[in-house]
Design a protein that fits this description.
Blueprint (H helix, E strand, L loop, with lengths): L1 E5 L4 H12 L3 E8 L17 H14 L3 E5 L1 H17 L6 H20 L4 E3 L4 E3 L5 E3 L8 H4 L4 H4 L2 E2 L7 H11 L20 H9 L4 E5 L4 E5 L26 E6 L4 E5 L6 E11 L6 E8 L7 E7 L3 E10 L7 E6 L8 E12 L3
Parallel strand pairs: 1-2, 1-4, 2-3, 4-7, 8-11
Antiparallel strand pairs: 5-6, 8-9, 10-11, 12-15, 12-17, 13-14, 13-16, 14-15, 16-17
Helix pairs in contact: 1-2, 1-7, 3-4
Main location: cytoplasm
Function: Catalyzes the 2-thiolation of uridine at the wobble position (U34) of tRNA, leading to the formation of s(2)U34.
Keywords: ATP-binding, Cytoplasm, Disulfide bond, Nucleotide-binding, RNA-binding, Transferase, tRNA processing, tRNA-binding
């Protein structure tokens, strides 16, 4: 096959490209330039899109003897990921930009161009597995599993994806990179949001949204403190509230709701975070069982655990009834459904939806 290897400049994509070459594919490496922010060239940038990352990717391709290109997707990235991130926070949601990048850039825009140029598949360093039946499963390395952020793909996109490192624990991937002589073998994993190099998300949102004063209130509606913008808060937040008036029972307060339209941020006790029902739309189906009603598992955060549930799925929306309450579920997050398996492999990804509402029983 003709395979386009998406090269982030990290160790995982380096080994993924090497394995694609070893499998006998005709491989071309490509690095996506996603930001024109001058800070992104700094060695201290903590994302995956800096000029240093592009140079690391080029050196790996030179060692493998494969062509290497840099494709400028910065305009598309700004529109589909950065602007979406800002708009989502402005609506009082809590988005996951890495998930949106996978959906709109790495497995939509990139795959579209790759297919137009005659490539059969795109290979990435994601930790996930596509089984013999074409279903997406969790990685062998449960600590690095990235199936959650891939749950936003379409079935057609998944059919043209390769995840060569998904069946191997991360320490072995680093050892394999060292055997190849890749400079990325000891490179730290990327973290934080790539388009916010200094990690100060609140300052970034403040600069892009502007001051939108509102009020922090308790669950009874009592006004506690004025704030500069609801985007400074997320569901489940405890630290940084800086409320001078203690709660009546002396217990910590948590953000339990955000109304961006009125600027109202509601705080309450931890038990007020517990929800029993999740509603989601913008469904993506990766398995035929994602239809009608079924018992399955749901994950609502990239590094969160799964919860047993009953999912009622319609055309483009679903209702998830949790068997046990979950805490800190926010609008804008993805709800990814999993099917338990008994064959010893990882759970199968059924599909996903974007959370629009939550509710809790008395």
């Amino acid at each position: 096959m003709r395979v386009l290897a998406a090269m982030s400049g990290g160790v995982d994509s380096s080994v993924a490209a090497a394995r694609a070459v070893e499998a006998g594919h005709e491989v071309v490496g490509v690095h996506l330039a996603l930001s024109r922010d001058p800070q992104a060239v700094r060695a201290s940038a903590r994302g995956c899109c800096s000029i240093e990352d592009a140079s690391d990717a080029r050196r790996v391709c030179d060692k493998l003897g494969i062509p290497f290109y840099v494709w400028d997707f910065s305009d598309r990235f700004k529109e589909d990921v950065i602007d979406d991130f800002v708009d989502s926070y402005a609506r009082g949601e809590t988005p996951n930009p890495c998930l949106r990048c996978n959906e709109k850039i790495k497995f939509a825009a990139l795959l579209e161009r790759a297919r137009a140029l005659g490539f059969d598949a795109v290979a990435t360093g994601h930790y996930a597995i596509v089984d013999d039946e074409g279903y997406l499963r969790r990685s062998t390395d449960e600590h690095k599993d990235q199936s959650y952020v891939l749950g936003v793909l379409t079935k057609t996109e998944l059919a043209h994806c390769l995840f060569p490192v998904g069946d191997t624990p991360k320490p072995q991937i680093r050892e394999e990179a060292a055997r190849h002589g890749f400079s990325t073998a000891k490179k730290p994993d990327s973290y934080d949001i790539c388009f916010i190099p200094d990690g100060n998300t609140q300052a970034f949102l403040g600069a892009n949204i502007g001051l939108r004063p509102g009020m922090i209130v308790d669950t009874e509606g009592t006004e506690l403190k004025e704030h500069d913008g609801a985007f400074n808060y997320t569901i489940g937040q405890r630290k940084g509230l800086d409320i001078k008036v203690p709660s009546a029972d002396g217990r910590p307060r948590y953000v339990t709701d955000i109304d961006a339209e009125t600027g109202t941020v509601t705080v309450g006790p931890r038990e007020a975070l517990r929800v029993n029902t999740i509603r989601a739309d913008r469904l993506k189906r990766l398995h035929p069982d994602m239809n009608g009603e079924l018992d399955c598992l749901v994950q609502v955060r990239a590094h969160g655990s799964v919860a047993a549930c009953r999912a009622i799925i319609a055309e483009d929306e679903m209702v998830i009834e949790l068997h046990e309450p979950l805490e800190g579920v926010a609008r804008g997050q993805a709800a990814v459904l999993y099917l338990p398996v008994s064959d010893g492999g990882g759970e199968i990804v059924l599909g996903s939806g974007t959370i629009t509402a939550t509710s809790r029983s008395a």
